[in-house]
Write a structure and sequence with these properties.
Layout lengths: L5 E4 L7 H10 L2 E5 L4 H12 L6 E4 L14 E7 L10 E5 L2 H9 L4 E5 L12 H8 L8 E4 L4 H9 L4 E4 L13 H7 L7 E4 L2 E4 L13 H5 L19 H10 L2 H22 L7 H6 L5 E3 L9 H9 L3 E5 L5 H15 L5 E5 L4 H14 L3 E5 L3 H9 L3 E5 L3 H9 L4 E5 L5 E3 L4 H13 L8 E5 L5 H10 L1 H5 L3 E6 L7 H5 L5 H9 L3 E7 L2 E6 L2 H15 L8
Length: 557
Amino acid sequence: MKKLTIIGLTPFEKPDVNLMLKLHQAGAFPVLSLGDELTTAQEALHQLDQIDVPSYGIYFSNDNSSGLQISEKVRFAILPFGMSAPSNLPLVYQVTSLEEAIQAEQSGAEGIIIKGNEAGGRVGYESTFVLFQRVINEIRNIPAWVQGGIGPHTAAASKALGATGVVLDSQLALFPESSVPRELKDVCSKLNGTETKVIANHPVLVRPNSPALPENTTAEELKKFFYGLDLNTCYIPMGQDISLATDLYEDFKTLKKLVFGFKEAMHGHLKQAKKLKVVDKENALARDLGLQYPIAQGPMTRVSDVPLFANAVADAGALPFVALSLLKGESAKSLVMDTKKLAGEKTWGVGILGFAPQELRDEQTSYILEAKPPVVLIAGGRPAQAKVFEKAGIKSFLHVPSPALLDIFLKEGAKNFIFEGRECGGHVGPLSSTVLWEKQIERILKEDHPEDISVFFTGGIHDAFSTAFVSIMAAPLAARGVKIGVLMGTAYLYTHEAVQTGAIQEEFQLQAMQAKDTVLLETAPGHETRCLNTAFAHYFNTEKAKLLAAGMDKKEV
């Protein structure tokens, strides 16, 4: 099993015999999704007996599998952890938490699939990037594959850092070898990933003409709509990683080239990363910004608004950002000026909100232009807002939470970016790190002069392991001269200096250290904030649910 680096799973939890044959011929290990219709599943199994596929796997997405005649060609079964095991086949469990992974190994599973919430089918709360970090160093005795938001760059990083390989499913949908209907392929080719929604722990494609569902839909109720691929009558199991399908098809065209490309990335990215030392002391970005390390401390409202804390970050060799947020008057001016005074010759920066009221932005801009910090970071901003700082010699980085925005920003001449996945704390964008990073890397590689571009990756990065993931994933960018760094916010909450300098209270840090997970609080459609899973978060969601139940419009809530 440890030689199975690329597993191809027929998309959307539907059997596809032709795709199985083509996956085998392309050099991937094929796995047949049995789906929800036993008759269709059995027919697919019979057809596979008649064609030249010597061995394959099967995937059970539900418990309705009794009575199926399983071929001797079937090497193992994949199923979500916790589902009753079919027949006597070797089992590979999809796990969505560290606890499930440990239990799967203890139960005698042949392997596990670390499945993030970017994939279709049953998922948990955690993204692929975070879940991979939590699981991979705890499970050492059985193979572990990664599923959800995976492209060639993230596949290379996953493999280098301990994964046996990766699982591709939605990513295969647009290839000519796939039997997905043309109408659905046309729809999928235009998706950016944000059109999917998690309902009852199952990401599905949601469209204006999708069937109506009852309030608080259960998984069993939702699965009644999984029986086909008709967009008008069905819900299709599909996660954010459907947005990778278009890039993969355009880059590779055939499954054989796709599989070769993934295997080449698994070998080449690591080799490049070792040679180039992508994120390392005094790398290209660190030298460009006058830093010891290509590490930035992200601006955090009511945390990184303490000059002493910024100075401590700078003394350690990283780039601190003080957060102006909505500060005005003397509070805003003194924060900027006091930080400048403490910093001396060290590099420091100011973080501002591009969507703040114009009058406030103008006031904050005047303080920044007076102080002239070496760097400015604009969250929710536009290239036009950065130009006023660039003209004053201040390097300006723009948050870019979506591929469409990156395309616009590049065309408008922007060169310095923050690629922030929704694993970060505070306000989050729509896409998880692995999906966003795959898309952004592909876009920059298409630039004529990528050597002019600087990028900080952020969202789930907090230590040497997560930074190594970025180094390997982004190695092709570094090979073309892109300057690479990482930005961390939450990680700084766990430092001695955060409390010592007064950036946070000791109780704040204690709560963070005791926390097991985070939650997303939706304050308006499309506006979400990640915070600790505290009593307040529970109160917020409870009160919001009451207002919605009382008939208040979601936008008003």
